[in-house]
């Protein structure tokens, strides 16, 4: 079983977002592996372990800093990593997907796993675009996954419930919380990771000539600061009465 | 005027609310047309005329009974290629999020996801789960836009109810489109609205003390017709299912009223619910972070406050319906 894991490095979820001149300030920020992608990696490692053979290869698009995330993922147990260097590239989701798909093509992967969205931009497009570019079926927002022979069985989250899908391999699967609990790298894994292959490919050599970004980001801005709310500390019965009256007459929400 | 397509969501032969919300945005963007995809969806086409939709293309086929990205994606992308609308609006729902990028890539389009506003020719979308907002513009067309539920006001019917032009599309699916098989669809039958579409959400955290603690929240939700949500702490403790988690690694919600009970207000949770119009916090700890995000708060024991609140809401709603009646 040859498994690819698409991985994105993101801001730590706990970090405060600071915006200056319409752009998010990257300094002083802790970087992590996108938590949904960690679920994808854990799933890949478990599938490989169960099969007793195979290879888990990481793919990530980004600057030099992304190597930190890839090293951590290698320490968790992935076999090797490919970084697509996007330094200086003006990219949207279509371009990132094109570069990833091109890098994935020669690998002949049976399974491509990726988090269903990244917690920073939350646009949830790249993995599905890769599936389309590689002409693979998609199993999206998956909370349970079983690989049996040449097919995948997936429990997928839908509005107000879930559905069970079946697809033949090769297939692209995006992962959702509930699927598993990602492992932590141990000392042995960290030592081994240093020796594992981490290849860099310039994005320019992967993106088709003439392909341009189709959407363009303007300014980023922060939500308006919230004014202090009304807090009732009186006895519960009086507080509840005052609250419901305020919700009806002042906020007009009920 | 730009040709703007709306891809309505239909369940049990009824338009879902997101469909009407998308029409509101579509009217601001140009001439509105709709593409109805499914099995037995044709009767809904006439209804769309009431909302100012000039033309409806109907793709009604047995193979479209159950949604899959491949089948619906094939139908929609073929039609986009043929008719070349400038903008296609799709709901940022579980279905829409699955469908949109597949279609965008197939028709070589840009996509702007989870749009919450449109001002000065710019689409606005939340990033970092609502901790910041991003302006995005298209530099090429067609453009696919997914629209967050519960943000735009649902379109009101326009008087007269002009019948739209209805065109039946030819559906031709290939073997590749049918690779994914839907084995089973399980809908939760709580009778409560879906979290991401609910007008009111009642959410509980660590302060609920256990799975049983949520029973009083469910009683409150039943009175309000609300959805039940949970913080990560409550989900991690196994008191509530993952699908109910609100926060950065859970659902992002934008109800009219969000009631947070026994939730301390970790930044992750705030990120998922800060788009709520009115936030109410109930917590024993007057220093809890949640009070900084809340419009109204009660400092007190939630096991005492919530049952009282349930009764008070019941009285208020009875009063409301008396006034209306």
Automatic annotation (TrEMBL), chain A:
One of the entry's Gene Ontology molecular-function terms is: electron transfer activity
Keyword presence, Transport: yes
The cofactor named in the record is:
AMP
Keywords noted in UniProt: Electron transport, Transport
Give the Electron transfer flavoprotein alpha/beta-subunit N-terminal domain ranges. Answer: 21-209
Keyword Electron transport belongs to the record = yes
Q: Which InterPro entries match?
A: ET-Flavoprotein_bsu_CS, ETF_a/b_N, ETF_b, ETF_beta_N, Rossmann-like_a/b/a_fold
UniProt cross-references to CDD domains, sorted A to Z: ETF_beta
| Pfam families xrefs | ETF
The UniProt entry, under PROSITE patterns, shows:
ETF_BETA
Q: Which domain of life is it from?
A: Bacteria
GO CC, any one term? cytosol
Q: What does this protein do?
A: The electron transfer flavoprotein serves as a specific electron acceptor for other dehydrogenases. It transfers the electrons to the main respiratory chain via ETF-ubiquinone oxidoreductase (ETF dehydrogenase).
Its quaternary structure? Heterodimer of an alpha and a beta subunit.
Extract the PANTHER family matched here: ELECTRON TRANSFER FLAVOPROTEIN BETA-SUBUNIT, ELECTRON TRANSFER FLAVOPROTEIN SUBUNIT BETA
Q: Report the sequence similarity comment from the record.
A: Belongs to the ETF beta-subunit/FixA family.
The name this protein goes by in its record: Electron transfer flavoprotein subunit beta
TrEMBL record, chain B:
Keywords assigned by UniProt, alphabetized: Electron transport, FAD, Flavoprotein, Transport
* Entry binding sites for FAD: 206, 231-232, 245-249, 262-269, 283
Task: Kindly state a single biological-process term from the GO annotations of this entry.
Answer: fatty acid beta-oxidation using acyl-CoA dehydrogenase
Q: Which cofactor does it need?
A: FAD
GO MF term set: electron transfer activity; flavin adenine dinucleotide binding
> InterPro entries per the record?
DHS-like_NAD/FAD-binding_dom, ETF_a/b_N, ETF_a/FixB, ETF_alpha_N, ETF_asu_C, ETF_asu_C_CS, Rossmann-like_a/b/a_fold
Q: Keyword Zinc: yes or no?
A: no
Q: Which residue ranges does the record assign to the Electron transfer flavoprotein alpha/beta-subunit N-terminal domain?
A: 4-182
What detail does the entry give on cofactor binding? Binds 1 FAD per dimer.
Q: Which domain of life is it from?
A: Bacteria
One Pfam family it belongs to: ETF_alpha
Q: Membrane spanning segments where?
A: none
**What family does the database annotate?**
Belongs to the ETF alpha-subunit/FixB family.
Spell out the protein name for this chain. Electron transfer flavoprotein subunit alpha/FixB family protein
């Amino acid at each position: 079983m040859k498994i690819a894991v698409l991985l994105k490095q993101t801001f730590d979820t706990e970090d405060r977002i600071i915006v200056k001149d319409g752009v998010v300030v990257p300094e002083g920020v802790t970087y992590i592996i996108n938590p949904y992608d960690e679920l994808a990696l854990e799933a890949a490692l478990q599938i490989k372990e169960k099969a007793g053979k195979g290879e888990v290869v990481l793919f990530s698009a980004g600057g030099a800093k992304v190597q930190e995330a890839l090293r951590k993922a290698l320490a968790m147990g992935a076999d090797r990593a490919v970084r697509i260097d996007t330094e200086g590239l003006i990219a949207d989701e279509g371009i990132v997907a094109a570069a990833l798909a091109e890098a994935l093509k020669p690998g002949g992967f049976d399974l491509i796993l990726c988090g269903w969205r990244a917690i920073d931009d939350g646009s949830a497009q790249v993995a599905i675009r890769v599936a389309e570019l590689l002409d693979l079926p998609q199993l999206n927002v998956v909370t349970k996954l079983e690989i049996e022979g040449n097919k995948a069985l997936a429990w997928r989250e839908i509005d107000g419930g879930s559905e069970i899908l079946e697809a033949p391999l090769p297939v692209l699967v995006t992962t959702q919380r509930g699927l598993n609990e990602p492992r932590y790298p141990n000392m042995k894994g960290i030592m081994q990771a240093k020796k594992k292959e981490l290849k860099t490919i310039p994005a320019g050599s992967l993106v088709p000539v003439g392909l341009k970004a189709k959407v363009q980001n303007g300014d980023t801005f922060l939500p308006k600061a919230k004014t202090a709310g009304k807090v009732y500390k009186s006895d519960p019965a009086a507080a509840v009465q005052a609250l419901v009256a305020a919700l009806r007459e002042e906020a007009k929400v009920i | 005027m730009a040709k703007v397509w709306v891809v309505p969501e239909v369940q049990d032969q009824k338009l879902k609310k997101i469909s009407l919300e998308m029409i509101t945005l579509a009217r601001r963007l140009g001439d509105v047309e709709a593409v109805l995809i499914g099995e037995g969806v044709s009767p809904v086409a006439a209804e769309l005329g009431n909302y100012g939709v000039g033309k409806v293309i109907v793709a009604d086929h047995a193979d479209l009974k159950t949604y899959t990205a491949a089948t619906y994606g094939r139908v929609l992308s073929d039609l986009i290629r043929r008719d070349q609308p400038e903008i296609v609006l799709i709901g940022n729902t579980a279905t829409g999020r699955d469908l949109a990028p597949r279609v965008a890539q197939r028709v070589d389009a840009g996509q702007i996801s989870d749009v919450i506003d449109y001002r000065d020719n710019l689409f606005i979308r939340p990033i970092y789960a609502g901790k910041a907002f991003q302006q995005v513009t298209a530099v090429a067309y067609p453009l696919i836009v997914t629209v967050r539920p519960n943000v735009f006001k649902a379109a009101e019917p326009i008087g007269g109810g002009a019948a739209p032009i209805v065109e039946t599309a030819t559906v031709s699916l290939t073997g590749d489109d049918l690779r994914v098989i839907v084995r089973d669809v399980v809908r939760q039958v709580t009778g409560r609205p879906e979290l991401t579409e609910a007008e009111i959400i009642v959410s509980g955290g660590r302060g609920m003390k256990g799975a049983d603690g949520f029973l009083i929240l469910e009683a409150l939700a039943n009175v309000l017709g609300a959805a039940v949500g949970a913080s990560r702490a409550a989900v991690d403790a196994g008191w509530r299912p993952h699908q109910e988690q609100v926060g950065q690694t859970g659902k992002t919600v934008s109800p009219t009223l969000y009631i947070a009970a026994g939730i301390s207000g970790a930044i992750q949770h705030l990120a998922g619910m800060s788009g709520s119009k009115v936030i109410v916090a109930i917590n024993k700890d007057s220093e809890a972070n949640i009070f900084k995000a809340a419009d109204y708060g009660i400092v007190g024991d939630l096991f005492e406050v919530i049952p009282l609140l349930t009764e008070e809401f019941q009285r208020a709603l009875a009063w409301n319906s008396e006034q209306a009646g």
